[in-house]
């Protein structure tokens, strides 16, 4: 795919001036040959050409590997505040007792300084994908995609958000553009609240079926859900929990009355640990939950090597402090 656009293209600005109304969406269409698709040009969007025709999802969360804007959309990002004084943080290491691990070990907190960081929550915008003709005998296929967000030209951050959305298209389709929002903002609006459901005891397969109720998960999503079930179950939960927010599916475990862990199963990029009052936190908006601005009520563990060990450490520390 082509590189990111650094500024809003002039063609987009020209079209902005010609569109009726203040509400627009970022969208574009591009033609791909059947050979390109068979060779995996759109594999990252789960679009494939099989014997019975073109298969594509109705909507998909762009993968982080597609570029900076796709990664920010799925994981959020941090900005180092070099304009502020450095803060003291601590690394916890396991040290040997009396210089010899055969005597046992103990935890030591090592202080270090770093600049504070502002965390910007992932927006988790989906691409709505469409192809007017998916029959198997086509030589070329026109793939249209639109970012699932309506932008209002009157809001102060309109151009910043438009640039983000254009780059989501650029990284995933190799093209970008805009069009009028055909419906009102109310019709496009999606709730930001996480609606949680406590799962009754049941089997691994029953929990997965409950999580994806009303939707057909991909094989990868089903396998990920199974792996997370095993991991959450190993934390000795009181109950398993599932949550929904728009097309997203959250899966986790209620470990104690004031301790829950969960992640977005649609794109597992991090595990979230929520503390304090579970009932109150569950009423927070999704943006508030993922913003990282809830102080010591909230921890976020990115899926990097050793993430499961880090989650266990945080869980055990919380349980020991109770």
Please tell me about this protein's structure.
- The chain is an alpha+beta fold.
- It folds into 3 domains: 10-76 and 121-188, no CATH class; 83-115, no CATH class; 195-321, no CATH class.
- Helix content is 28%, strand content 31%.
- The protein has helices at residues 10-18, 34-38, 68-75, 158-173, 185-188, 204-211, 219-234, 278-281, 286-290, 307-321; strands at residues 23-33, 48-50, 53-55, 59-60, 77-80, 87-96, 105-114, 117-120, 127-130, 140-147, 151-152, 178-180, 195-199, 239-245, 248-256, 259-264, 270-274, 298-302.
- Helix 6 packs across helix 7.
- The longest helix is centred in the middle third of the chain and has 16 residues, at 158-173.
Range of helix content = 25-40%
**Cα separation of the termini:** 51 Å
Please report the number of helical segments.
10
Unreliable residue stretches: 183-193
Mean pLDDT: 83
The count of DSSP E runs of length 2 or more, i.e. the number of strands, is 18
The largest β sheet comes out as: 6 strands, antiparallel
Question: Secondary structure elements and their pairing?
Answer:
Elements: H1 10-18, E1 23-33, H2 34-38, E2 48-50, E3 53-55, E4 59-60, H3 68-75, E5 77-80, E6 87-96, E7 105-114, E8 117-120, E9 127-130, E10 140-147, E11 151-152, H4 158-173, E12 178-180, H5 185-188, E13 195-199, H6 204-211, H7 219-234, E14 239-245, E15 248-256, E16 259-264, E17 270-274, H8 278-281, H9 286-290, E18 298-302, H10 307-321
Antiparallel strand pairs: 1-10, 1-11, 1-12, 2-3, 4-9, 5-8, 6-7, 9-10, 13-14, 14-15, 15-16, 16-17, 17-18
Helix pairs in contact: 6-7
């Amino acid at each position: 795919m082509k590189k990111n656009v650094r500024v809003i293209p002039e063609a987009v600005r020209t079209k902005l001036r010609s569109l009726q109304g203040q509400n627009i969406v970022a969208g574009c269409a591009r033609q791909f040959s059947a050979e390109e698709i068979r060779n995996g040009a759109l594999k990252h969007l789960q679009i494939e050409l099989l014997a019975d025709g073109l298969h594509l999802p109705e909507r998909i969360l762009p993968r982080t590997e597609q570029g900076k804007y796709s990664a920010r959309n799925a994981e959020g990002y941090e900005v180092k505040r070099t304009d502020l004084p450095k803060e003291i943080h601590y690394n916890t290491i396991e040290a040997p007792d009396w210089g010899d691990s055969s005597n046992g070990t103990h935890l030591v907190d090592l202080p270090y300084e770093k600049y504070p960081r502002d965390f910007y929550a992932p927006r988790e915008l989906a691409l709505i994908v469409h192809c007017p003709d998916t029959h198997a005998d086509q030589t070329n296929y026109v793939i249209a995609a639109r970012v699932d967000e309506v932008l209002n030209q009157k809001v102060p951050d309109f151009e910043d958000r438009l640039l983000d959305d254009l780059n989501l298209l650029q990284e995933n389709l190799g093209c970008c553009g805009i069009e009028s929002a055909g419906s009102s903002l109310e019709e496009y609006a999606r709730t930001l609240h996480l609606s949680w459901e406590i799962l009754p005891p049941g089997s691994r397969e029953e929990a997965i079926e409950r999580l994806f109720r009303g939707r057909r998960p991909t094989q990868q999503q089903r396998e990920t859900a199974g792996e997370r079930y095993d991991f959450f179950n190993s934390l000795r939960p009181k109950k398993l929990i599932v949550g929904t927010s728009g097309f997203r599916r959250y899966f986790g475990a209620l470990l104690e009355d004031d301790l829950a862990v969960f992640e977005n199963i649609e794109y597992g990029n991090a595990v979230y640990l929520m503390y304090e009052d579970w009932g109150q936190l569950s009423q927070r908006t999704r943006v508030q939950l993922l913003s990282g601005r809830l102080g010591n009520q909230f921890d976020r563990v990115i899926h990097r090597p050793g993430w499961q060990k880090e989650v266990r450490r945080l869980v055990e520390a919380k349980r020991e402090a109770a």
